[in-house]
Write a structure and sequence with these properties.
The structure is a homodimer. Helix content of chain A is 25%, strand content 33%. By secondary structure, chain A is of the alpha+beta class.
Chain lengths: 153, 153
Amino acid sequence: MPKYYFEDFSTGWTAEYGPRRVTREEIIGFAAQYDPQPMHLDEEAARNTMLGGLGASGWHSCCIMMKMIADGLLLDTASMGAPGIEEVKWLKPIRPGDSLTVRGSVQWTRPSQSKPDRGFVSFFWEVSNDRGERVMTLICPQMIERRNAGAAA
Amino acid sequence: MPKYYFEDFSTGWTAEYGPRRVTREEIIGFAAQYDPQPMHLDEEAARNTMLGGLGASGWHSCCIMMKMIADGLLLDTASMGAPGIEEVKWLKPIRPGDSLTVRGSVQWTRPSQSKPDRGFVSFFWEVSNDRGERVMTLICPQMIERRNAGAAA
């Protein structure tokens, strides 16, 4: 049974998850599988790129964040998924050994106009490293079931 | 040596990559690692979710697309990375056995105003399955080096 429903979120809600340490092995392993650009794959080659050294793929950063949010919040929430992502900003490289925390806040909530069993919650997620630098932000509207949605239907 | 530089892209540019078949094993494997929601992880549990059956994580879809674009285009391009993603829409579930193609088109290009060695190219990516359904779209502005940027600097 989920702990959290649409009604449990409102402007002012915040939460923090982590820390989660990122290793060199997983940065390179992810890159080999999904984003084989030299800056994510090879320390030597990465030195001559924009990143100035090995850094995680931006997609890897998204996936690491997703796992932290799933474990910390979504698996306990009556989530019905997300229709997409509104915006991702990759602000700084994620380096081998970085410990990441993710902070979430609610931008707005609104009940669905067509489906009375659910509502939308727009989350703003900020990922920071252990040097206090913000490395990524992401805006994602989440569909969440209303409490007692089944009973009302 | 890259084949493609900033000057090689303009409105009207299009390309298509794939097909790329997605297996049940990789859908479940990705979900276990990065997005362990029941709809991406377990056929039986997925039946009672929004997806109505097992479907790939939206993040997995992004990663599969990234690999297709890297292999098809970016590894041959003087790409300097992307500052982020402007928009992702997950339109339909990606099912085990689906064969995906990705079509890219250029929305706009502009030289960087502050750095004469590069420009921005905004790509619109559309991922379709082998039933002709569009399953995902994505807008991403890419930084790309200008041809002879080193010589001009």
